[in-house]
Write a structure and sequence with these properties.
Elements: H1 2-20, E1 27-29, E2 48-49, H2 50-61, E3 64-68, H3 69-72, E4 76-77, H4 88-96, E5 101-107, E6 110-115, H5 116-121, H6 142-150, E7 164-172, E8 182-185, E9 191-193, E10 199-204, E11 210-214, E12 221-224, E13 230-235, E14 245-247, E15 252-254, E16 262-266, H7 267-271, E17 289-293, E18 302-306, E19 319-322, E20 325-326, E21 338-344, H8 347-350, E22 361-366, E23 372-387, H9 396-409, H10 419-426, H11 433-437, E24 441-453, E25 457-469, E26 476-490, E27 494-508, H12 514-520, E28 542-543, E29 546-547, H13 560-564, E30 569-589, E31 592-611, E32 624-647, E33 650-673, E34 688-712, E35 716-727, E36 736-746, H14 752-755, E37 760-774, E38 786-793, E39 796-803, E40 814-827, E41 832-844, E42 847-851, E43 860-864, E44 867-884, E45 887-904, E46 912-913, E47 918-919, E48 926-929, E49 932-935, H15 941-946, E50 954-956, E51 975-979, E52 984-994, E53 997-1007, E54 1010-1012, H16 1014-1019, E55 1036-1037, E56 1046-1048, E57 1061-1063, E58 1066-1077, H17 1080-1085, E59 1090-1098, E60 1101-1104, E61 1124-1134
Parallel strand pairs: 3-6, 7-13, 19-22, 55-56
Antiparallel strand pairs: 1-3, 2-4, 5-6, 7-10, 8-9, 8-11, 11-12, 14-15, 16-21, 17-18, 19-20, 21-22, 23-24, 23-61, 24-25, 25-26, 26-27, 27-30, 28-29, 30-31, 31-32, 32-33, 33-34, 34-35, 35-36, 36-37, 37-40, 38-39, 40-41, 41-44, 42-43, 44-45, 45-52, 46-47, 48-51, 49-50, 52-53, 53-58, 54-57, 58-59, ...
Helix pairs in contact: 1-6
Protein name: TonB-dependent receptor P26
Keywords: Cell outer membrane, Membrane, Receptor, Signal, TonB box, Transmembrane, Transmembrane beta strand, Transport
Domain TonB-dependent receptor-like beta-barrel: 566-1099
């Protein structure tokens, strides 16, 4: 069907050449011509050229209009003569007739302009019906029309042949597939873009065609088609390979024009490791960002801080902006839907967000549709994650020796064991409780997207499904994502579009106690009732086939298999979120844009918590349950005016913004006990209410912003920004604050005295200063709150309200002031490129609880007191190590070093707040306790007795050598031991490619974190006792084993906490990925544009001195799942 249409259009075009003039010439197409006059401009000339008039008709009716240039020379018309009726042919004829011209219809969207004089000379054309007409018997078919007009073609005219279908892929020198590369047939309007996997498909007119490949930051290439139908293109990096676009907030600029500290990560590196949460992709890939997982639970989020912690009591999370939606949640996004994440780090970059930019800003841009035919992509993986890096526990025989034999030898009372336990011990058997409640867990992901469009309208739709089962039985996380987006040009002056997201997730984390129970339970116990030879010995109970007391004489530790059973314990969170952004943009003239956008988000979290009769918390009592329902809603309305212009060597951009933000959160909670039957949280009315509450929190923000970007000769750059915010949660007089910033940059590499050295391929210096605020001040913080309380009145309980805190109407913003120096440099045509940042940020007016005289009935009041300093260095290094022939190797290094220090506390000269572990001159999250000094040995028996200790006890440092271990205000032997904040972080990604194979892996190292080991203290808190199992690999002190590492099995240990402060530095090797892409010839045969298969191993190697569980975060094991390693296979297909 397509071929006759092309031939008819070609024949009419050739006929027009033959008939319109006596000499050969070339037909021009309106669609190829520059626009002479803006049809919507306020100034309307008295005359316009006929060519300009045809442009207006072409755009109005969406036509292709062909003509010979000489026919239109010297002809002008009055704009008022242009009529745009319902009939395009009639409208064209009316404007052409006065000049002896006529529009001949070729098909529904194509007209050719001919002179009436020429038509009269060649009447045969008058008798020809338009292509595609359906007249009577005399109507000429398109094929006959082609044949008739072909007879009129001279020898100089070459007949058109069938198009050639060309497919292929485009990669960088390092082997990275490049999405979004423009592919155009030279001299035509035929074009397409590479898909998400760097693949393209296009039709070329003939073998003489030339394909043009262009991509930001890379050298344009022109490739002749010849007799080939498949191409693998490698684009070389531009000598100035910094032309990529960076999103900086309310706009985009070239990376070469960036004056602040901005780092970006693209879709390839976001999805490389198949992260469940998009935040994970930032870890180790963005210098200055510290990303830490909150737990090992399936679906657990990651915590992120940028350039250290700036506040004590408020949130340190950065602002997330998703397609213009401020305050978005990265955890609700499907990583496969993200095109890029740009991280704004310094105050000059974040000041544009004013009071919301104190902790940095992450700007998320989701994938958009590309013009061209529909593209379908399918990405999926499936695999298993298995428990890994687990601490080794004692078996039954080791436990017996430690708690009985060794204790007897040390003169202590040995543990008591039942006959059932002794049978297990003597038979050489042992129960591995952790193994019983854990299993390898299936995980899978499926993502489908469809995108395409025309030169005016593009669209993208996607759907995703994720299933991540936990290793603890009956735990897991499921997420469903939908994404839809559309962008459209309405004429020459309007753009409209929308992006929407919908997410539903369900997280089941079980009992939150079963894993701790499994680590604590004696290995000498038995899991099943039938394993007991004499159940009556311990009055054991049969609960669904389980020995509830495990044959152990301890009624406080139930069988972990009972607690892990969802009929006994269940904690489930169901979340749903709908987000959307819609915009309309008006472009009245070149360089000027007026845009309004509305972003909104609504979400809810429904949390059900059920504890059955034989759960750890109930232990034989009737069930209890709790149900929480939380809703969150917000919207942002932005009105933005942008103008970009210049003259000579001067370029400038101006942005003005008015923004309104509103947020409303509601929460409801009901807790009951004594439920008559197992009903989860769906029959709360049948129990006895123990607690009920509800709350409403509202906040709003009104903002005005202005920004000016100036460039002289593309070498000297200036950015000035100012934003004023007014927040509802502060009192009158303090609601408004102004946040200014200024940034300078000098592209030294373009100076002759640098470029003549032939050393740098890029060199730019940057300097910036800015102020930002922290708007995370809790609503109603300035007001006095009430406490629901009660008291005894003559034997009768009386309930009422009492003041909870003292109001402070003078509460104002926390403010951060930051100075940043940066340098961007590159060598060897940017095969080595880097960015180095030095910064110093001071946060003042911290919101803390300040101590006040108790004369007014309160001991403290929320006030603006205190200061924090963060200063550090960041380095991002990209290298193309090998790019020769079929082999490629490139690496990315990111280094972060931040120093956090509390400069001032409470503003009254106070240097120490021991209760909150705040110390002037020390970092936040400091550990304050006695310093571990080894284990008291037998030779030190006399000295130990002076401190009321015995050999085998933990020894701590007597800081003042007074013979006492004290912890009073006057005399305190406790000191600051370290901090939970890291000294420095290093991330390294290596990517290799060889022909159709690719391989990559990720290395992450965190240094200097000191944790109070919650796993060691919380799970094995009575480590010197006999009740719980113990870690097998600890070097316990005994008389015959004078260890200086861990205390003795029978020693008293009043200072045992000192041993729990441990270095949590670790090295992780992860995300080992091996992929294979099918040859382009084969995928073309299968009607695909890309097909890649891969295998991946996540988290196989972790090296750390940290005892126990995962060193990345500090959480007691009973609140968590086990660490794991994942083994998956996946596929990326597009067609």
């Amino acid at each position: 069907m397509k071929q006759p249409l092309r031939l008819s259009l070609l024949s009419v075009s050739v006929a027009a050449v033959l008939l319109a003039a006596p000499c050969p010439s070339v037909l021009a197409s309106v669609s190829h011509l520059p626009v002479g006059t803006n049809p919507s401009a306020q100034y309307e000339p008295s005359k316009i050229t006929l060519r300009e008039a045809l442009v207006k008709y072409k755009k109005h009716y969406d036509l292709d209009i062909l003509y010979e240039e000489k026919l239109l020379e010297g002809i002008t018309v009055a704009p008022t003569a242009l009529l745009f009726g319902n009939n395009a042919e009639k409208s064209l004829s009316q404007i052409l007739k006065p000049f002896g011209l006529k529009a001949k219809k070729v098909n529904q969207v194509t007209f050719v302009i001919l002179s009436e004089k020429a038509l009269q000379k060649k009447t045969s054309l008058h008798d020809v019906e338009p292509a595609g007409s359906s007249g009577g018997p005399s109507a000429e078919r398109p094929a006959d029309l082609t044949a008739r007009l072909s007879n009129m073609i001279t020898e100089n005219v070459v007949r058109k042949v069938a198009d050639i279908k060309v497919t292929g892929s485009v990669s960088s020198e390092s082997g990275e597939k490049l999405p979004g590369v423009n592919v155009v047939v030279k001299g035509t309007q035929r074009g397409t873009s590479t898909d998400e996997n760097g693949n393209f498909q296009i039709e070329a007119p003939d073998e003489n065609s030339v394909l043009i490949f262009s991509f930001i930051g890379h050298v344009k290439q022109e490739i002749p088609v010849g007799n080939r139908t498949s191409f693998n293109i490698i684009l070389k990096a531009d000598d100035m390979s910094l032309n990529e676009i960076v999103v900086v907030g309310y706009g985009e600029i070239k990376k070469t024009d960036v004056t602040g500290a901005v780092a970006s990560i693209q879709t390839q590196d976001i999805t490389r490791a198949n992260p469940v949460m998009a935040t994970k992709a930032i870890q180790g890939q963005i210098a200055g960002a510290t990303v830490t997982k909150s737990s090992n639970k399936p679906g657990a989020p990651y915590n992120i801080t940028i350039r250290g912690e700036n506040t004590v009591n408020n949130s340190t999370e950065p602002l997330v902006v998703i397609d213009g939606l401020m305050g978005g949640n990265l955890n609700n996004l499907n990583p496969n839907d993200i095109q890029s994440m740009d991280v704004l780090k310094d105050a000059s970059s974040t000041a544009i967000y004013g009071s919301r930019g104190a902790n940095g800003v992450i700007i998320v841009t989701t994938k958009k549709g590309l013009s061209g035919k529909p593209r379908v992509s399918y990405d999926a993986y499936v695999g298993y994650k298995v428990p890994a890096h687990l601490p080794k526990l004692m078996n039954a025989q080791q436990f017996y020796k430690n708690t009985y034999t060794d204790r007897i030898l040390e003169g202590a009372v040995g543990a008591t064991f039942t006959a059932a336990e002794m049978e297990i011990i003597n038979s050489g058997k042992s129960t591995d409780w952790v193994d019983l409640i854990t299993d390898p867990a299936l995980q899978m992901s499926h993502n489908v997207s469809v995108s395409g469009g025309t030169d005016k309208t593009t669209y993208r739709f996607s759907a995703g499904y994720l299933n991540e089962n936990g290793n603890v039985l009956y735990t897991g996380f499921k997420r469903y994502n939908l994404n839809a987006g559309l962008d459209s040009k309405l004429g020459e002056h309007f753009k409209v579009g929308f992006t929407s997201y919908a997410t539903y997730s369900s997280q089941n984390v079980g009992s939150m106690e079963s894993l701790r129970g499994a680590y604590r339970a004696r290995p000498s116990g038995v899991p099943y009732y039938t394993d007991l030879a004499n159940p009556s010995e311990n009055q054991d109970l049969n609960v669904n086939g389980l020995a509830i007391w495990m044959g152990i004489n301890d009624k406080q530790v139930p069988n972990p298999l009972a607690d892990v059973d969802p009929s006994n314990s269940k904690l489930q969170t169901n979340s749903q979120t709908v987000m959307g952004n819609a915009y309309v943009e008006y472009i009245p003239l070149k360089g000027l844009s007026i845009r309004s956008s509305l972003s909104a988000s609504f979400g809810s979290d429904r949390i059900g918590d059920y504890r059955g009769t034989w759960s750890k918390s109930q232990i034989g009592n009737k069930p209890r349950a709790q149900y929480d329902n939380k809703t969150q809603g917000n919207y942002t309305l932005d009105n933005i005016i942008t103008y970009n212009g210049g003259f000579g060597k001067h370029k400038f951009g101006i942005t003005a913004l008015q923004s309104t933000f509103y947020q409303r959160n509601e929460a409801y909670m009901t807790a009951v006990k004594d439920l008559p039957y197992n009903s989860d949280w769906y029959a709360l009315n049948t129990g006895t209410i123990t607690s009920i509450s509800s709350s409403l929190v509202e906040r709003s923000l009104l903002s005005f912003m202005g920004r000016v970007n100036y460039s002289y000769n593309d070498k000297y750059l200036l950015t000035v920004t100012g934003r004023s915010d007014g927040a509802s949660q502060l009192s009158e007089g303090n609601k408004w604050a102004f946040f200014p910033s200024v940034a300078l940059a000098w592209r030294l590499g373009d100076e002759a005295f640098i470029s003549d050295l032939n050393v740098f391929s890029n060199l730019k210096l940057r300097l910036s200063y800015g102020q930002v605020g922290n708007s995370t001040v809790s609503p109603y913080s300035t007001q006095a709150n009430l406490l629901n309380t009660g008291y005894d009145f003559d034997g009768t309980a009386a309930y009422g309200f009492a003041p909870l805190n003292l109001a402070n109407k003078n509460l104002k913003w926390e403010r951060s002031k930051e100075f940043n120096v940066g340098v961007d440099f590159g060598f060897f045509k940017n095969r080595i490129s880097a960015s180095l940042e030095l910064y110093n940020r001071k946060t003042v007016d911290l919101i803390l609880n300040q101590k006040i005289p108790t004369v007014n009935g309160f001991a403290q009041q929320i006030a603006n007191v205190g200061q924090i300093e963060n200063k550090g260095i960041e380095l991002t290094l990209n290298t193309v190590n090998i790019a020769k022939g079929p082999f490629g190797w490139n690496s990315t290094f990111s280094f972060t070093r931040n120093r956090n220090k509390l400069l001032e506390l409470y503003g009254d000269g106070q240097q120490v707040d021991k209760g909150n572990k705040l110390f002037v001159g020390k970092p936040l999250r400091s550990n304050f306790d006695y310093k571990f000094d080894g284990i008291w040995q037998t030779a030190d028996k006399d000295l130990a007795s002076k401190y009321k200790q015995v050999p085998g006890s933990v020894r701590v440092v007597d800081q003042n050598n007074d013979g006492l271990i004290s912890s009073t205000d006057a005399i305190d032997d406790r000191v600051v031991l370290g901090s939970a904040l890291p000294n420095w972080i290093l991330g390294v990604t290596n990517r290799f490619s060889y022909k159709s194979f690719d391989f990559s892996f990720f290395v992450y190292y965190r240094n200097g974190v000191q944790y109070y080991n919650s796993s060691l203290s919380g799970t094995f808190g009575e480590i010197g006792g006999t009740r719980y199992n113990k870690l097998a690999d600890l070097d316990y002190w005994r008389s015959d084993n004078p260890s200086n590492t861990y205390f003795g099995v029978a020693a008293a240990n009043p200072y045992r906490n000192a041993i729990n402060y441990q270095d949590a530095s670790f090295l992780r090797i992860s995300d080992l990925t091996l992929g294979y892409s099918l040859p382009s010839g084969l995928i073309s045969k299968w009607k695909m544009t890309h097909a890649r298969f891969y295998g991946q191993v996540t988290n196989p190697f972790v090296f750390s001195k940290f005892t126990g569980f995962d060193p990345e975060f500090n959480s007691a094991i009973y609140q968590d799942d086990v660490p794991s390693a994942a083994y998956t296979v996946g596929v990326n297909i597009s067609f």
